[in-house]
Amino acid sequence: MANVYAVKSGNWSDTTVWNTSALPTSADDVYSNNFTVTIDQNVTVLTLRNTASSPIVAGGGFLITGTNITVTCTSTFSQTTYGTTTLLTVNSTGVVNINLNYVSSNQLKDSILLSVINTGTVNFTGNVYGGGSSGQINITAACTFNFVGNIRQVSDGSARVVVLVSATGYVLNVTGDVGFATGGQTAGCISINGNGNINITGNLIGNSTVNQVAISLNTLATLNVTGNVTGSGVGVGISTTQACYVSVIGSLISLGSPGLFSSNASAINLCSGPFLCSQYGNVPFSVSRIHYIKTIGSYFEFRDSSTNGALSPSPAAPATRLVSPNTVVDSPIPANVRDGVSYALNTLTGTLKVPAAGSVALGVPVDNTTGTAVLTPAAVWDYATSSLTTSGSIGERLKNASTVDTTGDQLAALL
């Protein structure tokens, strides 16, 4: 292992940039030595550093401007303090692959590990521990940033953040857990200050000892989490006061603080549950409005009465109401409810045909009364005579029947 350092600013591929007059190898720790080195080719080294190590001075950094560049650091690097400069800057509209594993109990508190200032795609692999006043990973451009690894916040007690996003129109994809090791303050492990899309596949956990959240949404943004979100001690898992869209497919857990805090009545908070509490009095979520995902494509909405429920993904009010299971179990079947009557909170409609009282014999129970129909001799006679000329009726048949007079006439005609 050797320390290789820059002696002037320039391209990585220029051998005159390096103190060895040769390109750094995979066995080297590489220092910027207060110069700016532009990485113009794929590189593999032990570590990249902007710290001091005699005769090396602190400062400077490394810059990526090209496309399809891969930077790999194979050593787990632990450094308790850095200079005030950015270690690695990505100013590329193409694809850049970065493989780092920088772990420390108090790392990068005074500088930025990685800054993305252009609109390309950055694929980052490795665990990042630490906390910086401006973020260890600082995203200021509408890029796509794919992070694979764990993001852990540790601090000296000041307001520190691991990932700071101040751009708009970005996409941040994280595959790994987001949470805390020791220390920390109110900045948030991931702090979002610009509108964009964040997708996290992993677990989020707030700090158990200080008011530190796993992810803080400080402006409008869309957050999708597939994993469990835990509030621990006085630290919330997800915190926002904005009208954000938050979806959590996983458990919301309270180990003291809520897993989700959302105080804006216009926010969308889709949660699949289950909702778990460590003890009586703890709440897994503290929200003005929440949507419980029953099945894919459907949900129950709980909200303040002042919210109209018409914001996406809700339909217009009224919202779905939840009732005791007994309400559904004890409901009569539609065949036992009057035809056309809605019941069971408008989920069922009766089909029973109930005759009118005037169609039922006098005194016979019907509906909530008794029949009023009365059968009299006059009614029978009136009905019979009303149809004397109807085809096939008795009257029609009797008009051609033999009588005493017609029989006498027939006999007289024969004699």
Describe the 3D structure.
The chain has about 425 residues and is mainly beta. It has two domains: about 1-325; about 375-415, no CATH class. The chain is built from four helices and 38 strands. The protein has a twelve-stranded parallel beta sheet, with no helix packed on it. A hairpin with a 4-residue loop joins strand 35 (about 340-345) and strand 36. It is rod-shaped, with a radius of gyration of 40 Å. Mean pLDDT is about 80; it is low at about 180-185, about 305-310 and about 315-320.
The oligomeric state is single chain
Distance between the termini: 153 Å
The helix content, as a percent range, equals: under 10%
Give the overall form. rod-shaped
**Radius of gyration, taken over Cα atoms and rounded to an integer in Å:** 40 Å
Number of helices: 4
Q: What share of residues are in beta strands?
A: 25-35%
Strand order of the largest sheet: 2-4-7-9-11-14-17-20-23-26-29-32
Please state the structural category. Answer: mainly beta
- Into how many domains do the coordinates divide? 2
Give a count of the beta strands, DSSP E runs of length 2 or more. Answer: 38
Enumerate the spans where pLDDT stays under 50 for 5 or more consecutive residues. Answer: 182-186, 305-312, 314-320
Question: Could you describe the largest sheet, including whether it forms a barrel?
Answer: 12 strands, parallel
Whole-number mean pLDDT: 81
